């Protein structure tokens, strides 16, 4: 056999095994050295290819697609700095536990470290941010090497999803010529049965035995002021289990906006969603002192909840993880329990705990007072909180919301109140960066469900070239762009006191007319000045196939004052008593 046949059969068997292992999508960043793999991924009937020109955008697109489908997505690029541009999304995938199979083409060994063009050190390029790295052998089509290449493809899929999901990295050294020969017979097969994966893995879930559950119950039995907390997590089916536990114990359930619990048809009786608003006051946090906390999922978005956790270290804290991890930024003493969360809820429900009389009612009244103020009033010029509130009123049932970081996710935390609508919410809260947000939202939209992307002007600016995917593939996405001409979140922080350097270093105004970006990428554009205009524009956007951008312009300083006014009104009513009775 000649070089081309070795190359063809080797890369074809690798690609085919990915498909046999259940991979359906591959995001390709075009380049030369990756030619054989790119062509194979494109030619295979079971795979859908997404061609994204910019590598950073491609990686975040793959991240969003993997989040939405809950399946690993293949990500392929050529050699050199192309691979380095994947790094930010790989960091995010690591921390947010998203499965990616990152494939980097590379120069063969004889062209490394000798001054050859487009050759950088790619071995273990992503360090500890990938779960597994493997340097592939040079292409060969012997029976043993085809078995080898299939085994590595199968292992990459398993490693990306085993335990806590995450990215894996395969580096392919490839010699020229790089064009495969598709005229060869049976390139997708080896000696194994056609269509069958080379390896089948079955994996169960972790559960606690009866004695372990009993120990947990006994440690709680004498406690009377408990809360259940659900932070960011992606399992949409978990809501049914955790609300049943809260109902059985008659206990407050604090639900993060990314918990997938605030929306849906399940019971909302025990859900407390406005804790971020009423926990901003230290006296209120003290009056709600718990004696135990059971947290599922990651740490909630809310900073007041973080303060609450730090201030009540004496409470017994249980942190439930599916497989492994140490997501506890408050520095408290905690019991880490690694088990299937739904199974644990079912086991705990078999035992009845009794809370202190009036304990649940305190939380419910505080929640009701907060929601009353958060829903109240309409400003002549729309505020950022009102924009999120209006969006949640009209967002279609069954759609997806992808929210940016900084102020966007915090306003979702505050103004996304419980709803019967089925809304799945995504965010890049692993590393909490503002880069790649447009591409991530479009990646989620590539799965076929309508997506609303909520983000600020700086996040939009960082990733405007990601809009090319919307134009190229006609993806259905509505972008709500909150434009406060800079970094609005810094107006809530002490940085504002440094007036001399604030605008240059933190405010960072761009003074960009974003409507031109919409026109450049073939989208529709509207600017909304008040709440009714916004809701009308969003509803029109949801009816439009393709890219729609609705821009809301706000003032950073006035927006901060409006938010503080809401929080102050909530604090005053709660501490003074309310028409609901004496809350505390």
UniProtKB/TrEMBL annotation:
GO MF annotation list: 2-succinyl-5-enolpyruvyl-6-hydroxy-3-cyclohexene-1-carboxylic-acid synthase activity
Domain Thiamine pyrophosphate enzyme TPP-binding intervals: 437-552
Enzyme Commission identifier(s): 2.2.1.9
Menaquinone biosynthesis protein MenD middle domain: residues covered: 208-402
Keywords: Magnesium, Manganese, Menaquinone biosynthesis, Metal-binding, Thiamine pyrophosphate, Transferase
Origin superkingdom: Bacteria
Cofactor or coenzyme needed: thiamine diphosphate; Mg(2+); Mn(2+)
Classification via InterPro entries: DHS-like_NAD/FAD-binding_dom, MenaQ_synth_MenD, MenD_middle, THDP-binding, Thiamin_PyroP_enz_TPP-bd_dom, TPP_enzyme_TPP-bd
Keyword flag Cell inner membrane: no
Pathway: Quinol/quinone metabolism; menaquinone biosynthesis; Quinol/quinone metabolism; 1,4-dihydroxy-2-naphthoate biosynthesis; 1,4-dihydroxy-2-naphthoate from chorismate: step 2/7
UniProt domain Thiamine pyrophosphate enzyme N-terminal TPP-binding: residue ranges: 14-124
Cofactor note: Binds 1 thiamine pyrophosphate per subunit.
Catalytic reaction list: isochorismate + 2-oxoglutarate + H(+) = 5-enolpyruvoyl-6-hydroxy-2-succinyl-cyclohex-3-ene-1-carboxylate + CO2
Summary of subunit composition and partner proteins: Homodimer.
Family stated for the protein in its record: Belongs to the TPP enzyme family. MenD subfamily.
NCBIfam families hit by this protein: menD
Function: Catalyzes the thiamine diphosphate-dependent decarboxylation of 2-oxoglutarate and the subsequent addition of the resulting succinic semialdehyde-thiamine pyrophosphate anion to isochorismate to yield 2-succinyl-5-enolpyruvyl-6-hydroxy-3-cyclohexene-1-carboxylate (SEPHCHC).
Protein name: 2-succinyl-5-enolpyruvyl-6-hydroxy-3-cyclohexene-1-carboxylate synthase
Source species: Virgibacillus sediminis
